[in-house]
Structures are given as C-alpha cells and as structure tokens.
Amino acid sequence: MLSRRKKSITGKLVAKQVPKIKPSKARRIIRRFHLLIQKRRVICSKLQCLIVEDDEEANAISIEKFFKKNKSLRQSYMVGKNSTRLDPNLEELLVRAQNVNSSRQLCELLGYICREIDEDGGLKNYQMASTVGQDSNRGGDSSKLLVKWCKELSLDKTMGMNALELGSLSAKNNISTCGIFNPVVRVDLNSNDTVNIEKQDFMERPLPENESEQFDLISCSLVLNFVPTPIQRGQMILRFQHFLKRNQKTYLFIVMPLPCLANSRYMTKERFNEMMNCLGYREVRYKAAKKVAYWLFNFEKSDDFNHTNTGMSRFTKKVKLADKPGMNNFAIIIPSKYSGYG
Ligand SMILES: C[S@@+](CC[C@H](N)C(=O)[O-])C[C@H]1O[C@@H](n2cnc3c(N)ncnc32)[C@H](O)[C@@H]1O
C-alpha cells in the first residue's frame, strides 16, 4: 500500500519528503560509491584471470563462488573485511588497484570494498544520496522522461498496463504516480522502504510461470551500470524477456550513465542497440542528456528466443572498439551458455 502524501493546514499537498542531506554531501557519497564499484569491477576481473583457464564458467563466477574455490584467499578477504574504515594503506592500494597483481592484496582490497558497500551503510547511504538526486528540485527522477514518452505513444491508463521497476528508490517516482501503470511492482537489492519496495535481487526473482506474473514494462534506470561484471549485466538483460508479456506492446526503459557508451573501450550506442536488436528489442525513443542516456525499447519477440541463431555470438565476448587514455572499460557480455537463469 502506498503511504499517503501529507497535507498542509490549508489542505495543500506537502512537497515530497527527501532525506535531509546536502547536495554537496550527496555528490560526495555518490562519487565514493561509484569509485568502490568501479574498483570492485577491476578487482573481480583481475581475480577471474587467476581461475583455472579451462573453467568455462570463469567469467561468471561470483565473489562467493570464487572463495569457495580459492579457500586460501578467503583469509586475505576477511582481513580486508575486518579492517578499519578509511585505512590509509588500503586507500592507497585502492587508488592503484588496476596495477596490483598480488592475489592476496586484491582479495584484501575486495574485502575492504565489500565491507563498505554491504555492511558499513555504503549502499544505504548511496541510495539515500541518489534519492536526493531524484528530488524534483534537482532535475527529477528519470521516469519523468519515460512518462513523457508513454504519453507520446498514446499509452494511457485505459490500457491496464503494469510495470516492474528495478532498482527502485521511491514509490513516489513518476512511473508510480502517473497513473499509466497499475500496479507498479518495485524491487531493489536494499530497500529503505520495505512497505513499498520489495527487497529483492532481480537475478533471484522466480521466473514467471504465466502471463499474470509478467509485465507490460520494465524500468531499469541506472541499474545495469551498478551490476559488477559484464557477464552479469548480460545475464540481467537476458532475464528481462522472461518478465515481459508477449503481446507486441511491451516495453523496456533503460537508463545508463552516458560515459558507459560515449567513453568506453568496449561499448558504443550502436553496439548496444545491435545487441538489443538481436534480443528482439527495437528502439522507439532515445535521448542522450548531459550525463545519462535513456532508451525506450519495444520488445517485439513473440516466439521463444533462440540464443544460437540470432547473430548473438558477436556479443558473447568483449570487443575492443577504441582505446584512448581516459576511456573506461564498461562492457556487456551476453553469456554463451544460456540456462534460463540468465
Ligand atoms: C544508481 S541506483 C539507481 C536508482 C534509480 N533507479 C535511479 O534511476 O536513480 C541503482 C540501484 O539498483 C539496485 N540494484 C542493482 N542491482 C540490482 C539487482 N540485481 N536487483 C535489484 N536491484 C538492484 C541497487 O540496489 C541500487 O539501489
């Protein structure tokens, strides 16, 4: 049930509540968090190189699985997990993580990062800071554009559409208040509002058994860049099709930071669109703003997607498209073995 908006003494609706945190502090928290997930990405990809080469699942290995296989390194990971916040030595190591080659140091660093993200309020603070960024006084949430596009496409409440919002930070975002989508199912890894937002890893959400568990629209705003490895991003994208209805009028809204496309060695807007086309999505709207890129895709596949015959092999590996100093390594890899979990 949605919480009711407060009214002033004169009966006017009171502006939505945003956490009391200064924008400058919010920016600092967001920058720190982005640094942590970027370094975690670097470390994870370095550690994967240490896994036996004939292990086909190597790329997909999670941190937990990694330590099950590499028990001796768990100790270093735990040292990092138990270290104090802003440890000067580890902070120094963090800055040059890409040049660290000792697996022990990498694991210690990984523990240090994971503790701050998972246990030290890192994710919670980041979400709070992101909510400040979503405040309408500061540009509003990204679903404002989604709603504008839906109206352009004549989607309205008479169509009885429902939506799944991944990485939801607020039940008061435009997607929930516009009235076009009802219900809006909201999930997040770490919900600060468990009444309105289900705490769930989308990758663990049970696959729908019938259309009543599927959606007319999935919103995935600034979530893909949050997912730690290229292959996990690919797995997330592959999962979407299971959750979308098969009636030609289903949509996927994606938002990513612009540098993921405009400044990556492995990804461009063209490549991302080709990948999505292969998976049965057609771009109906696109906008590149100053810092983020927005897409609305129509999901056109009505028959079951066959992973082997759609030209998908082009996207099962990282391909270097450019290489200049200052570029980032953002990539998406579609797993070559598709298990349904993906
Ligand atoms: C940068 S925030 C984006 C929030 C909001 N959607 C926006 O556009 O500002 C990314 C959110 O995605 C969530 N997230 C990342 N991976 C997820 C997953 N596998 N399942 C559910 N939520 C996930 C994180 O917990 C985080 O709150």
From TrEMBL:
Protein name: 25S rRNA adenine-N(1) methyltransferase
Broadest EC class assigned to this enzyme: transferase
InterPro entries, alphabetized: Bmt2/SAMTOR (IPR021867), SAM-dependent_MTases_sf (IPR029063)
Job of this protein: S-adenosyl-L-methionine-dependent methyltransferase that specifically methylates the N(1) position of an adenine present in helix 65 in 25S rRNA.
Signal peptide positions on this chain: none
Family statement drawn from the similarity comment of this UniProt entry: Belongs to the BMT2 family.
Keywords of this entry: Methyltransferase, Nucleus, S-adenosyl-L-methionine, Transferase
Gene Ontology CC: nucleolus
Residues reported in the UniProt entry to bind S-adenosyl-L-methionine: G167, D188
Major location (coarse): nucleus
Keyword Protein biosynthesis: no
Molecular function GO labels: rRNA (adenine) methyltransferase activity
Superkingdom, taxonomy of origin: Eukaryota
Pfam families, per database record: Bmt2
Organism: Kluyveromyces dobzhanskii CBS 2104
Enzyme Commission numbers on file: 2.1.1.-
Subcellular location: Nucleus, Nucleolus
